[in-house]
Amino acid sequence: MTSIAEQAATEIAKHARGIIPKIGIVLGSGLDEVVEQIDEPIAIDYKSIPGFPALTLHKGQMVIGHIAGTPVACLVGRAHYYEGLGADAMSVPVRALAAIGCEMLLITNAAGSLREEAGPGSLVLITDHINFAAVSPLFGESGNERFVDLTDAYDPILRDRLLVAAKNADITLHQGVYIWFSGPNFETPAEIRAARILGADVVGMSTVPEVILARHVGLRVAALSAIVNLAAGMTGQPSSHNLTVAAGGRAAKDMARLIVSYLEAEGQR
Fold first, then answer.
1. Is 48 a known active-site residue?
2. Domain locations along the chain
3. Domain range 4-266, CATH class
4. Is 103 among the catalytic positions?
5. Would residue 174 show up in a list of annotated catalytic residues for this protein?
6. Active-site option among 154, 229, 247, 262
7. Which of 110, 200, 251, 252 is catalytic?
């Protein structure tokens, strides 16, 4: 029997005009500017793809095309655990990317920083994560494949390449550990202090389930955070989603330039 992910891949292929994406890109809040770099974009609404989630925060489109000559498939909008859809809400989109030919998943997000030197507008390359939400998108899976090794979930070779791409584009790229809180409420100052003790550098409400799903299907993973605020208790100011979107827009230009720089080099490999 054909799986939902395979049905989704078949539907995507109908629209893709023969393009086989090499890299899947997940775009976080305020980071749609990356889509503007796609040559001759093909947009497919999530609503028309079997198994893709209905979103409450983002618009929900897959956009296929080329960036710097590299075929890509961008997921413009993600489902979050806090939307009541389960930790596996992005299961079909991630599995569909693997099914249509992607070899790598580049995940982006808007995040808060626990480090003052990486303030709003900064970019952070994620080196590892802490699953503070303590749930997995693989709950209910069967077989030994569900016991996914996450030792190098954030591929060291891809991280090195992104650091080189950042240098070539004259972009400062910090590095750090991402901690996942379930949301939708922002964290308390006490939780942020605890996160620091645990070794976290950035905090957010996404990404970790997508990383686990990607590794489950064998996709290589890299992830980037656009810093939109200093975390709770660091400034004396309240957190808000409106500020997240505004600051994400300021970081979006550097994020787009970094991704183009990376894909330019990728196209030569």
1. no
2. 4-266
3. alpha beta
4. no
5. no
6. 229
7. 110
Is the pLDDT at 220 greater than 50? The verdict is yes
To 5 degrees, how large is the angle CA 136–CA 107–CA 138?
A: 15
29 is catalytic: yes
Q: Which entry of 79, 205, 223, 251 is annotated as an active-site residue?
A: 205
pLDDT at 232: 81
pLDDT at residue 1 in the model: 47
pLDDT over 90, % of the chain:
79
Tell me the pairing of strands 61-67 and 220-230.
Answer: unpaired
Considering only CA atoms, which of 26, 68, 80, 5 is closest in space to residue 226? Answer: 26
Residue 248 pLDDT class (50, 70, 90 cuts): low
State the DSSP H helix or E strand holding residue 257, giving kind and residue range, or none if neither.
helix 241-266
Residue 62 designated active-site: no
Contact of 134 with 225, CB cutoff 8 Å: no
Question: CB–CB of 239/184 below 8 Å?
Answer: no
Q: What is the DSSP letter of 201?
A: S
Let me know if 82 is a catalytic residue. yes
Q: Tens of pLDDT along 121-174?
A: 999 999 999 999 999 999 999 889 999 999 999 999 999 999 999 999 999 999
80 is catalytic: yes
